[in-house]
Structures are given as structure tokens and as C-alpha cells.
Amino acid sequence: MATTLSCCFTLALFMVILMATPSLSLDNMNVIDKCWRGNPLWRSQQQQLAKCSIGFAGKMINNIGKDVVKYKVIDPFDDPLNPKSGTLRYGTTMIKGKVRITFKNSMTITLQRPLLLSNFTTIDGHGVDVHIIGVGCLLVYQATNIIIHGLRIHHCKAQPPSTMMDAIRLVTARKVWIDHNTLYECQDGLLDVTRGSTNITVSNNWFRNQDKVMLLRHDDGHLRDKNMKVTIIFNHFGPKVRHGYAHVANNFYQWWEQYAIGGSMSPSIKSEANVFVAPSGVGNKEVTWRKGEKGIWKFYSVGDVFKNGASFSKQTGVGGAKPNYNQEQNFKVVDARSVKKLTSESGVLRCSRSLIC
Ligand SMILES: *[C@@H]1O[C@H](CO)[C@@H](O)[C@H](O)[C@H]1NC(C)=O
Ligand SMILES: *[C@@H]1O[C@H](CO)[C@@H](O)[C@H](O)[C@H]1NC(C)=O
């Protein structure tokens, strides 16, 4: 009897260990991650990531194909005046046409100037630990078809004559997908989307330790920003919007300082199935912040979950401001109760040799 029991106990223990071994469970993944991480052949088809985007960026199919130059960064050095082959800056500025930039190993790149990304550039730090710090940092200026994936961008600072100090700044950028990055502690904001930028998807990012996280804004005189279209999905933390339209869905917001979603200059924001956990104690429990004239705000909240006393002062007219996605942009917004789970791997994915990620 005793032997039988102990045998069963061993077996049960073995099964528990087996079940607890980290493995890719598709159930825990959101629709973007499932699309590539769920592919068993992923390792040999990493370009296919480009087909997994959703939201206003659509599918990034212009970033794949036979004409894409594969470039590997082997040197963390940065010389803006004379970029050396093997460095990140060489890959983003010296290679003509479509380029897919990956990294040979983990490294910290200290930028001496903001890094300008050209059309049809993918930067993918997946699988290694890439930190980008220094002056800048990433600038997408008048460019289109850009993927920024798997990077840790932080401690970005200004240095005259450059005044840039965001982790990522989009200026007149179109069709940009920013996915699975960890952004934190920059001098200004973490992500600044401005001047006629549109068709942007910001997904699976972790915006850490910063109050001014994301600014979707307009500069005076840039009425084009009224057409700004941004999808913000599966991130930790959220945006401030001026003009334009943001569909903010399935994000996890926790402990904001002043507000979680802000707006000025009559933006339209549809907040859908997000989780808002208000700061404890005397902090501001209100999710939204709005500046300027009354009555022109279009803030809608549908299916959001509010915790710790969080509140959302919204417009009447439930379900307003539809994103009107086309087929390639469209996705199913999930129930807010799954959001914590579906954003639990936001930011750069932690990988090891033994664990496919
Ligand atoms: C990107 O392409 C457009 C034309 O489609 C061109 O006007 C622009 O200068 C290019 N930008 C960069 C940064 O290469
Ligand atoms: C944005 O995407 C839509 C749908 O793909 C497209 O019709 C439109 O031309 C794009 N806008 C710009 C400014 O590229």
C-alpha cells in the first residue's frame, strides 16, 4: 500500500513538474503573439512577424520578401558622422531599400545623435537583450513601413542642437508598428506621435516608470493631425491625445500619477475593454484628463474595468467613435477580464536558449 501510494505520489509530482515547465500556451497569448509565437516554424521564418500586426498599421507586408536586405548588428559603437559597417546606424542609414536589422548578441548602444529610420526598415531585437540609450533616441521622420520590435529603449536625453529626448518619436510617419518594446526613464516622453503621422499600431509594449508616457499630438498649424489614426492595444500604460483618433483597447493601466488617458484639441478616443487600476491613497482616481473648451470631447468608454476606485468621465453616446477598420486592420477586442493575462508579457520578451519565446 505504502509503495503504491508513494509511487502515485511520485507520478503526481512528476506531472505537476511537467505541467509547471514553462511552455508556450496559446491560450495565454493575445491575437498578435499567437500569430507568430504559435508558429512552430517561427525560428526559420522570423520575417513572418510582419504579417501579425493589426489595427491602423494594417499588415506590414511591405517589410517582407526576397528584396529585403538582412543586416546583423555586431558592433554597439555609434558614429553619426561616419557610420561604421556592423553598427546599428550603418544599418538604418547606409543600406538602400528594404532592410531587416537584427543583433548578433546582447548589447547596449549609446547613441550620439537621434537615430533616423528610413523607409522599409525593420529593427528586431528579439532573442537578445538590446538596450538603446543616449541622445535621441529613435526618430521616424517622413518615413513609412517601419517595424520596431523587441528593444529596450531608455535614458534618452537631449543634446543641443537636437531637442529630441523621447524613446521613439514619429514625425509625419505612416504605417508604423511598434511592438514588444520596453521603454522607460527618458528625459521627455516615451512615445511621441506628431505632425501628420497616421496608420500607427502600438502593441504589447511596456511603458515603465514614466508619467508622460505617450503623446499623440498636433503641433499648431498641423491640421493634418486631425486625420491621425492610432491603435493602442495590449500595452502596459497609455496615451494622451490631441486631435486625431485613438482606439485604445485591451491595455492594462496601473497607478498613473496625473491621468491615464489625456486629451486636448478635440481628439476622439474610444477606450474599449481596458483595465484601469487607480493609484492607492489620495492619488487621482480619474482616468481621463482634458484641457481646453468644453463640449467637444469625444471620450468613450466601452467594456472597461475600473479598479481601486478608478473613474472615467465619459461622453454620453455609448459605443461612439468606431474605428471603422478595414479587413486587414480589424481584430476582435477581448473581454477586459482577460487583459491582465494577455498583457502579462508586454515589453521585451524574456528568452533563453532552452525556452522558445
Ligand atoms: C520615404 O519615402 C518617401 C517617398 O515615398 C520620401 O519622400 C521620403 O523622403 C523617404 N523617407 C526616408 C526617411 O527615407
Ligand atoms: C492609411 O491606411 C489606409 C488603409 O490601408 C489607406 O487607405 C490610407 O491611404 C492610409 N493613409 C495614409 C496617409 O497613408
TrEMBL record:
Belongs to the polysaccharide lyase 1 family. Residues 106-282 form the Pectate lyase domain. Transmembrane segments: none annotated. GO terms for molecular function: metal ion binding; pectate lyase activity. InterPro entries: AmbAllergen, Pec_lyase, Pectin_lyas_fold, Pectin_lyase_fold/virulence, PEL. The keyword Oxidoreductase does not apply. Keywords: Calcium, Lyase, Metal-binding, Signal. This is Pectate lyase. It is an enzyme of class 4 (lyase). Gene3D superfamilies: Single-stranded right-handed beta-helix, Pectin lyase-like. The keyword Ribonucleoprotein does not apply. SUPFAM superfamilies: Pectin lyase-like. GO terms for biological process: pectin catabolic process. Its cofactor is Ca(2+). Residues 1-25 form the signal peptide. It comes from the Eukaryota. Its EC number is 4.2.2.2. Binds 1 Ca(2+) ion. Required for its activity. It comes from Gossypium darwinii. Pathway: Glycan metabolism; pectin degradation; 2-dehydro-3-deoxy-D-gluconate from pectin: step 2/5. It catalyses: Eliminative cleavage of (1->4)-alpha-D-galacturonan to give oligosaccharides with 4-deoxy-alpha-D-galact-4-enuronosyl groups at their non-reducing ends.
